[in-house]
Structure formats: C-alpha cells, structure tokens
UniProtKB/TrEMBL annotation:
InterPro entries: Chitin_Synth_Reg, Sel1-like, TPR-like_helical_dom_sf. Keywords: Repeat. This is HCP-like protein. The lineage of its organism: Eukaryota, Fungi, Fungi incertae sedis, Chytridiomycota, Chytridiomycota incertae sedis. It comes from Neocallimastix californiae. Gene3D superfamilies: Tetratricopeptide repeat domain. Pfam families: Sel1. Coiled coil: none annotated.
Length: 424
C-alpha cells in the first residue's frame, strides 16, 4: 500500500498483499528536466542549489495561490529525497520541507495534499498520523484517501478495527469516486469473506465494474487479478463450482484473455495449458494442489483436473518431456490410490492403470508399485501382463478401471515376464 504513493491508481489492495503496508520506499519515476519555465529544476544542479531554487519557487506559487503547482513541487521534492546522491542531512531537509508544504496545503482543505501526507506517514509507520490525514482527505471527498481510511479501519492501523466502517468507506470510494482499487478490494472481500460478509453476487458486481473501464494509469496487476477471479467464477459456476453463478464459458474466456493481457502469469499459464502444453499443465497442477498462495488460492479440485490433463497422451518429442510426464502419471496414480478429501475417492483400479502407464515410460517407482499390487492380490507367480489383464477384465474388486480400454494397448505391448524380472 505504500509503493508509488504519488500515483493514485497504484495503491494495492491489502487483501491481495497485506504485507505491503510496511514494504519498501515510495517508488516514483524520476522527473525529466526541461529548459521550459514549467520544468521542476535542472538535474545538473546540486541538492543544495536545488533547495535554494525550490524555496524561491514555493514562495512564488504560494503568493499566486497555485496549489496544484505547489503539490507538484512537493511530489518532486519527496522523490528527490529518496535519491542515493543525497546526503542524510539533505534527505531530511527535503522531507521536512515537503511535509511543511503539504501541511500548509492541508490547512486550505486541499484533499490531494492530505492524502499524500497520509501516505508519507504510512510509509514511516506512523499509522495514527496517517489515518488522521486520510480522514481529512475523506472529509474532502478524496477517493483514494477514502479507500486508505477504509484500510486503516479494516486492519487497525491508527484506528480501532471495524469491518462495518471499512466496508462503508470502500463502497463510498467505489461509488462516489470510481476508485478501482476500492472496487476490486470490495469484490475480493465479498468473494473470500475477509470483511465477514461473503456475497458472491456482490463480488461479481464489483469485480466486473472495476474491469469495465480501464484508465491509462490503472494498476494492471490489480485488474489482472480481478479478471482472473472472474474467469474462475464463470468457468466453474461460482467459487469451487458451487452453482452460485451460472456457468458461462464464453464469458470466462473473455476474462481469461483480459487477465493475460494485463500481465497475469496464472492466466498466461492457463491459456498455454488449454493448448495442451505439458509444462503449463504441470505448473498449474503444482500451484493448485500445493501451497502456493503467493500465486493462486489452493484448490485441489482444479489441481487434480490439471494433473489428469498433464497425464493424458501427448505428442512429446524429447526424452525429458516423456520422463516428466511419466512422473506425473505416477503421481496421479498415487492420488487415485489414496484419494483426495472432498475431491476424489480412492480408486485402486485407476491407480493401477496410471502406474502401468508410468512404468512404460521407465519410472522405477511405478514398476515397484505394480510389483506390490501383484503380491498384495496373490498374483506373485503370474506374469505382469497376465496380472494386469485380469485386473482390467474383472477389476480388483469386480469393477474394471474406467481407463481399461485405453490401457489395453499398453497391456498388449508389455513383455511376458514375471514380476521378478520386470523390464518395461
């Protein structure tokens, strides 16, 4: 929430990254020098000479009551105070001058100045003062100041925690000021219940509203995340496919494409996976099955789906790709063997099928699994192909594998050797 404090659209929702409150310095792109009268100041001047020039400029614009120009000077000075070629003394001097200038503008109820003061104090970790100036900017109808005040109430930064007040402030910022970070934060909050008020239809409403119009300065990362959430909702028919929203694959693909266009790694990976790219399918399976919350919310059903897609036959050309797929097929077999709570019941026939497929690609662990199954079901004196044929015809428990027909070709290719000398 403190990066790029002088670019309103870049303030990230803490729902997406709550740790950002304390992270880093303000990152404002450097200002280009110009010989025009409106230029901030020539870059070749030393910090000391710049300061003399700036003090004169401030006096000039104060006399002219030119608040926008004074605010521009304050922003540029704060940016300068972070430069490496400034001594600690000059950094403090510039910063003090910026705060003094912004406070004077705040006395005139200049909402932008109040908001930027709040961001500066937020960066310093002085949340009490930060919330004070965010409240001033809210009173003067500043959308981002209103949003940041909501953050203070949601997380208890300089204000008592109060989710109701936070929600009200976010809605005001979204409705009155068309504040996209507030809209997206509202959408995510309703989607995941972070404000203790889960509402899927409200979530979709705010996420769609935020992505409907993309301004030039909008935070592309936030838009990408919002579009990706909408893609999942429409593709599955609500979160985790709960049916709360009608499935709409056409709408889902629109949002998937928008998410990728705005830089979403997950969306790009999903598009590649849909095009049957093995690496992308493996990556998605790993993200969703394992704890990779920095990328996506864990979702074992989605992860299991991509694991199965990665295991299906493909036109692979390199030994490395084939071995990677063999490992995936073995992993899929172990998931069928043990089951996944609320996703997949144990299915020993399916497990054996994928162990066989994996063994054909030379995965030692899969071969050992087949040996274990032979012993476990009293077929240790049979050849491996005879054992598998019996299983596929009758099933270990009287029910053939759903994949038995696909497996038949593999069975036919197996050499007729006993389990004591398996070479697949």
């Amino acid at each position: 929430m403190v990066d790029n404090i002088f670019e309103d659209s870049s303030v990230n929702s803490s729902l997406i990254n709550t740790s950002s409150v304390n992270s880093g310095l303000i990152n404002i792109s450097s200002y280009k020098s110009s010989s025009s009268k409106n230029s901030y100041i020539k870059e070749e001047l030393t910090p000391e000479r710049k300061l003399v020039y700036l003090v004169k400029s401030i006096a000039k614009y104060q006399a002219a009551h030119n608040s926008p120009k004074l605010l521009e000077i304050a922003k540029n000075m704060y940016n300068d105070s972070k430069k490496d070629n400034f001594s600690p003394i000059m950094k403090r001097t510039y910063e003090k001058q910026v705060i003094k200038l912004l406070k004077n503008l705040s006395k005139q109820k200049y909402a932008d100045a109040e908001y930027y003061l709040g961001k500066i104090y937020q960066e310093k970790g002085n949340y009490k003062k930060a919330s004070k100036y965010f409240e001033f900017s809210y009173q003067n109808k500043h959308p981002m100041g209103t949003f940041e005040l909501g953050q203070c109430y949601e997380h208890g930064y300089g204000k008592p925690k109060d989710y109701k007040i936070a929600e009200t402030l976010y809605r005001k910022a979204a409705m009155v000021g068309y504040c996209q970070p507030a809209m997206i934060h509202l959408g995510m909050s309703y989607l995941y219940g972070s404000l203790r008020n889960k509402n899927i239809k409200e979530a979709v409403h705010w996420l769609e509203k935020a992505t409907a119009t993309l301004s030039e300065n909008v935070d592309r990362d936030l838009i990408a995340k919002a579009c990706y959430e909408l893609y999942k909702i429409y593709a599955l028919g609500g979160p985790n496919g709960d049916g709360s929203i009608p499935q709409d694959f056409e709408e889902a693909l629109i949002y998937l494409k928008m998410s990728a266009e705005n830089g979403s790694t997950e969306a790009m990976m999903e598009i590649s996976a849909e095009m049957d790219c093995l690496d992308a399918q493996i990556k998605l399976a790993t993200w969703y099955l394992c704890d990779h919350s920095e990328v996506v919310q864990q979702d074992k059903a989605t992860g299991f789906y991509w694991l199965k897609q990665a295991a299906l036959p493909k036109n692979l050309t390199t030994d490395s790709e084939k071995r990677n797929q063999g490992c995936i097929q073995f992993i899929l077999g172990t998931y069928y063997e043990t089951g996944i709570e609320n996703v997949q019941s144990p299915d020993e026939n399916e497990a054996l099928y994928w162990f066989v497929v994996s063994a054909k690609l030379g995965i030692t662990e899969a071969i050992e699994k087949i040996k274990e199954k032979q012993v476990e079901h009293n077929y240790e004196d049979s050849s491996i192909s005879d054992f598998i044929s019996v299983v596929m015809d009758k099933g270990l428990y009287g029910k053939p594998s759903e994949s038995s027909l696909e497996c038949q070709q593999i069975i036919n290719d197996l050499p007729n050797r006993s389990h004591h000398s398996i070479q697949i």
